[in-house]
Amino acid sequence: MSEEPGAASPEPPSPTPELSPSVRAQLLATEHWSLLASRSTTQGEVLTRISMFLTFTSASLLSVALVGNATQFSDAFRAFALTVLSIDLVVGLLTHIRVMSVGMEDLMYVLAMNRLRAAYIDLDPGIRPYLMAGHHDDEPGAKRTYYFLGGRTDFSQVAGSSMVFMGFVNSALLALLLGSAMLTAGLPTIAAVPVAVVAALAFFGTSLTRGHRRYLDVWKNNQPISPTI
Question: Where are the domains of the chain?
Answer without folding.
Answer: 21-221
